[in-house]
Amino acid sequence: MKNMPNELAPCGVFCGACPSFNNTCLGCTSDSKEQERTSKWGCKIRNCCYNIEERNFCIDCSQFPCKKYRKKLLYTHQGDPKFRYRHEIPEIFEKMKEIGIHNYLKFQKQRWSCPHCGGTVHFYHYKCSKCRKEVRV
Ligand SMILES: [Zn+2]
After folding, report:
1. 76 within a domain of the structure (yes/no)
2. What value does the mean pLDDT take over residues 22-36?
3. What pLDDT, on a 0 to 100 scale, did the predictor assign at position 1?
4. For residue 132, how far is its CA from the centre of ligand 1 (angstroms)?
5. Range of the domain at 51
6. Mean pLDDT taken over the chain
7. Cα–chain-centroid distance for residue 136?
8. How far is the CA of 134 from the centre of ligand 1 (A)?
9. How far is the CA of 73 from the centre of ligand 1 (A)?
10. Within a domain: 133
11. Is residue 81 part of a domain?
């Protein structure tokens, strides 16, 4: 499964809604050296999901959500609404199994689109990147 959409991180975070996406970063899926943000290459979750042969999503793993996952994503910034996009993953990620990667990507793009102008809504801020309106995702 090498050709995964750049918007979908293996952990279930929607890279397409990250302020760095297509800015300093091409998404967790990308191995391109042409991007500034390279910290992802040291990510324990990414390294667990990706090896030369295979690229997987955490949701397909029998240990999901495993200890490293809980430590890095679910138990960090608990109660902080800016990090809701992390804490909601287990619930939302299940959808990928039901509807498939392609439809899941569509669903996420839709979710993170501004209802006012169609711009991308970014996590952390929960604001549209174009019209700057606050959006409840
Ligand atoms: Zn907007």
Report:
1. yes
2. 93
3. 46
4. 6
5. 15-128
6. 93
7. 17
8. 8
9. 28
10. no
11. yes
The residues whose Cβ lies within 5 A of ligand 1, an ion, are 114, 116-117, 119, 128, 130-131
Q: Name the token pair of 52.
A: 């030369």
- Which residues lie below 8 Å from residue 8, measured CB to CB, with a gap of 6+? 14, 15, 16, 27, 29, 57, 101, 104, 105, 108
Span from the CA of 135 to the centroid of ligand 1 (angstroms): 8
Q: Give the tokens for residue 129.
A: 């990147």
Cα of 126 from ligand 1 centre, angstroms: 11
CB within 8 Å of 118: residues ≥ 6 apart: 130
- Mean per-residue pLDDT for 62-73? 95
pLDDT band at 23 (very low <50, low <70, confident <90, very high): very high
Question: How many structural domains comprise the chain?
Answer: 1
> Considering the domain boundaries, does residue 1 fall inside one?
no
Q: Which two tokens stand for residue 84?
A: 């809701």
Using the mean position of ligand 1's atoms as its centre, give its distance from the Cα of residue 119 in Å.
5
Note the pLDDT tens digit of each residue in 112-129.
Answer: 999 999 999 999 999 999
Is the N-terminal amide bond of 65 cis, ω within 30° of 0?
Answer: yes
pLDDT beyond 70 at 52 = no
C-alpha 23 – ligand 1 centre gap (Å): 18
